[in-house]
Amino acid sequence: MTVHQEKTPGWLDWHPAPSRPALTLPAGAVDAHCHVFGPAAAFPYAPERKYTPCDASAEQLFALRDHLGFDRNVIVQATCHGADNRALVDALRRSGGRARGVATVRPGVSDAELRELHEAGVRGVRFNFVRRLVDVTPRADLWDVVRRIAPLGWHVVLYFEAADLAGLREFFLSVPVPLVVDHLGRPDVSKDPDGPEFAEFLSFLRARDDIWCKVSCPERLSLTGPAALDGERDAYRDVVPFARRVVEEFPDRVLWGTDWPHPNLKDHMPDDGLLVDFLPHVAPTAELRQQLLVDNPTRLYWPENEGS
Ligand SMILES: O=C(O)/C=C(\CC(=O)C(=O)O)C(=O)O
Question: What is the CA(163)–ligand 1 centre distance, in A?
Fold first, then answer.
């Protein structure tokens, strides 16, 4: 059967020839947020999806990993695959232990499926609250999932818009497993990093010492650029104060990832090599980059390798 899954109109494909970063990454660096999409012929996109991406296979992700100088990946299930984690599991198995995963599961997931996900390398589930990506999931369903995954030692990755944090905070803080926030909690970077909205986000991070934060996606958050293209190593300046604030206050619970293949970007597709070269702006010392790229993701995703 031929699978016809046309890309969403205006879709931007991943950069075909990213530069090699000027920054040499520390040994053991982890790209802690990236995705695999399809290929649709083998792993069709979910009927309930809100967008249809271009394919972005495990082999293509691993080629990028090697090109940029990363050692490992954390692959995050994206909404275009719904709760069908087959493409994710396939990628984890092909990685030879060099990738761990974050899945999407529904409350009815079987014990056998959870066991299979864990054996493949899944260590968390993602709860997505971004309205353009998903329909609302009833709180009771989320609770059921939390109850199922807690005994496995997994965490919950949270994707939400900054404006929605006030309404979600109490629920998040009641979830009894570690939390990982995607993309700085998506701040409006036209606002003051010292203003009340970002203060609310920092206060959320302070509320528990097991809330982690990805300081990723400047290309998605930036309003003024300049884009990480054409040799630009001083990109996305409006995002820097927000990301740097979080890295400096929480150096032992920040993570970073490329977000390859950058779904749903509208105005440009960054050069992934230049995105890596953005890192010294948010983590200016080698010590901070060692924590951000190696120590922290190893502790969360490969605790058995910590210190080795
Ligand atoms: O790549 C990301 O993290 C962000 C996405 C896509 C996504 O999260 C999903 O489909 O699950 C976005 O903002 O469109």
Answer: 17
